[in-house]
Each structure stands twice: as C-alpha cells, then as structure tokens.
Design brief:
The chain is α+β, with helices and mostly antiparallel strands. It folds into 2 domains: 229 residues, Aminohydrolase, N-terminal nucleophile (Ntn) domain (Glutamine Phosphoribosylpyrophosphate, subunit 1, domain 1, 4-Layer Sandwich), CATH 3.60.20.10; 203 residues, Rossmann fold (3-Layer(aba) Sandwich), CATH 3.40.50.2020. 30% of the residues lie in helices and 27% in strands. The strands form 7 sheets. Strands 3-2-4-1-10-9-11 form a 7-stranded antiparallel sheet. A 6-stranded antiparallel sheet has the order 5-6-7-8-12-13. It has a 4-stranded parallel sheet with strand order 17-20-21-22, with helices on both faces. Helix 5 crosses helix 6, helix 9 packs across helix 10 and helix 9 packs antiparallel against helix 15. The longest helix has 15 residues. The structure holds iron/sulfur cluster.
C-alpha cells in the first residue's frame, strides 16, 4: 500500500498493513520519502512484531509505502523483505511488489548486465528502474520503460524521492485499488484498507496503468496493455478478505454464490453444513441457503494460529493443522455432515479434519469444495510451485475422495466458478485449473497469443 497526504502517513500505513496481514506473514516494511531521501525499516515477522511505537516514530514523512511479504520466489528470509531500495542521482527509490515476474531467468541470462548478482524478481524492477531514471525524461517514462521489460504479475507501489506511483501489470493479475482521503490519496491491495482510513473508493487501478498518486490529484498514464485481463480467480476463492471489493465484485458475495452453485451441482442429503473456518465460511453459508441444510459452526478455530497455507515451511504447516481446529462434539455426533472449504491443495489439512470429525462421532462426512481441482502450478504470485504437491495431480475426483477419507467429494465446476465471480472467462486467470496461462511461461501452454496494444 502507499499513501500521499498533507499529514504524516507512517501510522496509517502501519494500520493499513495490519488490515491486509492475511496476504503475507513472513516480513513487513515501510518507507517514507522526504525530498530526495527515503527512510525505511523492514524486518521478519508480523506487522506489529516489526514495528512498535518507537520504531514508527523514527519514520517521518507525508508520503510512504508499506508491504507485508509472502514469498513465492527468492529466499524466505527477512533479507528479501520489501520495500526494496536503491540510490540514484535522481534520488532514492523504494519499491513494494505484489505478484511474481516470469522473465527473470531470461533477463539474468545475459540480457541485463550484472543481473546474475540480482536477487528477487522485485530487485530486477528496482535495478532496471534505477538505470532508466538516469536517462529517461522524468520518473514516469523511467517506470514505463522499466515495466516494458518485465513480464508477469505485478501490482507495484513505487517511491521516487517524495513522489508516489502505483502500477498494475497489463493483465491486472493481482489486485490494486485507489482511494481518496480528506488529505490525500491511498493505494492498496484490498479495499478494507480504504475503509479503515475512511477513504472513498475511487476505482481499481486498470490493467497496464501507472498512476501518479499526488496529495490532491491522482493522474493516470497508460502503458501497453492486453485486450483481455487475467484477474486471479484464487483471490476470489481464497486469498482476499471476504469484505474486499475486487475488480467490481464483493468477494463475500462471490463465495456465497460459489456455495449456492456447489449445492446445485453436488446435492446430498445431510443433517448439517459445517464450514472449514475461516476460509470456507461464506461458501458454506451459500451452500446451506441453497440446500436448506442447517449451517452450524461445528469446527472451532484456534484464533492464534496463522493461516496454515501461507506458513512458509511444510513442517510448520503440518503443526499448524494440528493446532488449528477442533470439532464441537454435540454438533457432529451421529450427524451426516457436509463440510465446505474453499479449495484443496495438498489434502493434508482436509484428511486430518475428516479424521477428527469421525472421531467426534460424525456418521457421514461429505466434502464440498468451492474451487475446481487445482492441478497446475502458479507462476504469478501464489506459492503453488510444483504439480507433485497437488492431491488432484494425476487423480480423478473419486480417487481424491478416497484418499482423504470422505464419503463423497464434490468440486465446483469451472463454469460454476466463472458464473459466481460474475466476470467473463476472458477476464480471469484460470491457469492453475486449466494449465493455460495468460503470459508465456517456459514449458507451459499460453492461453492465447496476444499483442500488447495502446502505447502513450
Ligand atoms: S495460476 Fe491460479 S493462482 Fe496463479 S494467478 Fe492464475 S488463477 Fe491465480
């Protein structure tokens, strides 16, 4: 996120980052601009572990950016926390990046001199931008020249001295929205940040757009863009907060519609519908409404255990599953249970939950999943990197059901998912479901050949 304001921004960035803490738990960082100089602090851990009041007071400025890290490439250490910084003759620069670039390897192999020493994909953006700033006629041109050379998923906030910019890749894969406050502008990955800051939602940053975010005005510049967007379907299914309004659709409503569709696609006679908390709650509410089966909170979540899916190490993830939730015996004993969750990745969490429900006395456990089977990796900002990790890889649905120990298993169809998101198929990325990606990835199928159009 980033803020440009006529009053100090550091505390507001700190609070905003807490709102989107679910997007990354490995590291946090804030940078503020003062003239040509940028001050920053970053470190490993949750936002409130990295920043205390004293630390926040050392960062003074009316323009700044902040980031919480969830790594998909590079090292899973605090060293690669954002913002990533560089010094140029035109002033300091700092960049925060949500997403993942796909052409780092080709840039490293000789296209960019010195690139063999560069670390994460975001460091490529920073290094190229630092070079472009030395020769380009102004920061905007430097940013557009930089972005013309990188490919993949990126929502960026960029500080160049005390100037703030935001940019979204030509497919708008990751989210980014713009809000107007009384004393300035804010850009953030999710709209609940705007709600917290009492900012009025202006709009989503468009595909292939750079926005110069001023204190009084936000000016738009368009880069080459694609005819079709490719918003990540997984943001709707799992990753975003349910109260986020994402590219025109409220995520909670999408998840509720997913649940309704699941109930139509996979009917079963049952006594109760139970969500896997918290990720399956809205899906289960929709399923319950459509099927008429009572919704009960049959699994109690330990609120102090982080989301297992984005804990960085497998061992930690497994421990997280054991700590995470416990069945309520009186709600499941002798019942036919429909258990609803957003998605299945490895299947380890689901297998354990089913086992726990049976131990608590459930008569039948039927699994309903609000996302079609994930069988292909994501190269665009979600940490799902190998086909081998997916339980659905090489297995039919009935085989998966057997493996996790379910009485029946039903996945939402791709058609049902698209309908629930309420955007046309050619505006969504479905790469991890179909194996066809919106950008060229080595060894993978391209969804369609596209030509970038429109350049100013
Ligand atoms: S491949 Fe899947 S997770 Fe990755 S951007 Fe596309 S839809 Fe999202």
């Amino acid at each position: 996120m980033g803020i440009n304001s006529s009053s100090p921004v550091t505390r507001r960035i700190f609070l905003g980052l807490k709102v989107i803490q679910h997007r990354g738990q490995e590291a946090a960082g804030i940078a503020v601009g003062n003239g040509l100089k940028i001050d920053h602090f970053k470190g490993g851990g949750l936002v409130h572990e990295v920043f205390d009041t004293k630390r926040l007071e050392t960062l003074k400025g009316n323009v700044g950016i902040g980031h919480i890290r969830y790594s998909t490439t590079g090292m899973k250490t605090a060293d690669e926390a954002h913002p990533i910084l560089a010094t140029t003759s035109k002033g300091d620069i700092a960049v925060c990046h949500n997403g993942e670039l796909v052409n780092v390897k080709s840039m490293r192999e000789g296209v960019e001199k010195d690139a063999s020493e560069w670390g994460s994909d975001t460091e490529f953006v920073v290094r190229i931008l630092a070079k472009e700033l030395e020769t380009a006629p102004g920061p905007l041109r430097a940013i557009s020249r930089t972005l013309a050379r990188v490919k993949g998923a990126y929502s960026l906030v960029i500080l160049i001295g005390d100037k703030l910019f935001a940019a979204r890749d030509p497919h708008a894969i990751r989210p980014l929205c713009l809000g107007k406050m009384e004393d300035g502008y804010v850009v953030a990955s999710e709209t609940p940040v705007l709600d917290l800051l009492e900012a009025e939602f202006v709009r989503d940053v468009k595909a292939g757009e750079i926005v110069e975010v001023g204190k009084k005005i936000a000016r738009s510049f368009e880069m080459p863009r694609n005819k079709y967007t490719a918003h990540c379907m997984f943001e709707y299914v799992y990753f975003s907060r349910p109260d986020n309004c994402l590219d025109g659709s409220l995520v909670y409503d999408v998840r509720r519609r997913i649940g309704e569709t699941l109930a139509k696609e996979h009917k079963i006679k049952a006594d109760v519908v139970i969500p896997v908390p918290d990720s399956g709650r809205a899906h289960a509410a929709g399923y319950s409404m459509e099927s008429g089966t009572p919704f009960v909170e049959g699994l109690i979540k330990n609120r102090f255990v982080e989301r297992t899916f984005i804990l960085p190490e497998q061992k930690e993830r497994e421990m997280g599953v054991l700590l995470k939730m416990n069945p309520v015996k009186s709600l499941v004993e002798d019942k036919r249970v429909v258990l609803v969750d957003d998605s299945i990745i490895r299947g380890t969490t689901m297998t354990r939950i089913i086992g726990n429900l049976r131990r608590a006395g459930a008569k039948e456990v039927h699994i309903r999943i609000g996302c079609p089977p994930i069988r292909h990796p994501c190269y665009l900002g979600i940490d799902m990197k190998t086909r081998e990790q997916f339980i659905a890889n090489g297995r039919k649905v009935n085989q998966i059901g057997k493996k996790i120990g379910a009485d029946s298993l039903g996945y939402l169809s791709i058609k049902g998912l698209i309908k629930a998101i309420a955007l046309p198929e050619d505006r969504l990325c479905l790469g991890c479901l179909t194996g066809e990606y919106p950008v060229e990835v080595d060894g993978e199928k391209l969804r369609r050949q596209e030509k970038l159009e429109g350049f100013s």
